[in-house]
Amino acid sequence: MSTPSILIIDDDPDFVEITQTILETKQYRVRVAYNQAEGLARVEEESPDVIILDVMMGRGAEGFVFARTIRKDPRHKDIPILMLTSMREQTGFDFPGERIHPDFLPVDEYVEKPIEPQVLLETVERLLSQKDR
Length: 133
What we know:
Blueprint: E1 5-9, H1 13-24, E2 29-33, H2 36-45, E3 50-53, H3 62-72, E4 81-85, H4 87-91, E5 109-112, H5 117-131
Parallel strand pairs: 1-2, 1-3, 3-4, 4-5
């Protein structure tokens, strides 16, 4: 089996660097994008095995738009998306995990930042194993 590829889409360079370093400890191939447009370009170039996506980028909640765009594209609709965000901290708005509506927020996992490195790795592993089914 080839090395799984992970795409991180987040506008915080420090977060991206730390997350990339954590993922690379497990030998994942990590690609990065700093906004929705770059993220879409990366997905087109090489369909990743998992996407780690922030909500709040650029002019607002670009992560929502990105997730909906990916889910509407038959070529990419099955890529697992881990939404990793500090939205609650920034806005006070929260999404309890079990009540995320798949049309409103079409992601596989939703986790608030900060995330412990081991939790990040376990979540990515779980998403990869679900994709292989």
